[in-house]
Amino acid sequence: MSWGFLRDLLSGVNKYSTGIGRIWVAVVFIFRLLVYIAAAENIWKYEHDEFECNIKQPGCENVCFDHFFPVSHIRLWALQLIMVSTPSLLVVFHVAYRQNREKHHNQKLYKSPREIDDGLLCTYLISLILKTGLEIVFLVLFYKLYNGFKVPRLVKCDIRPCPNTVDCYISKPTEKMIFLCFLVATSCLCIVLNLSELSYLLFK
Known about the structure:
The chain is mainly alpha-helical and 204 residues long.
């Protein structure tokens, strides 16, 4: 998947952001997007092939993997990155609307194309609230789906067609745990930055 569109989107919104907003863009681009592409994606690339159970019963390994990993970590992270960046489109659309109005009226309606007036400020605040809400939703989703932010070395499975309780082993659990903690921490940092920027704009 090409992440160029996400980079261009964040860069386009960056010029309308406050200093805190620019830090958020840097965190998303460097500590989340680049880490995801360069490292995290490869760690979970063959997670199903490297998931092993101590039984050869047909279908047992598949149902156990599906039970403990209902959604792939890496696909959920990709969805999270896309969803938390999507509210920034509101700002892009608002600016495009302003420019279209000026073109339609054939006159300058705004003092500066980069100036944040009341309408653009309202749109920007809504995008911040949506980004913060989506970050929290995905953190809760991660926590609920995987019973906490942890990657166990061994899981016990007794789901049919497994004939009894079998031991299943997850590959590279320590490495996966480190990246899981890192990505959760950066997500929490983004929430703090969004709330800080929201507070700054409201009380400015």
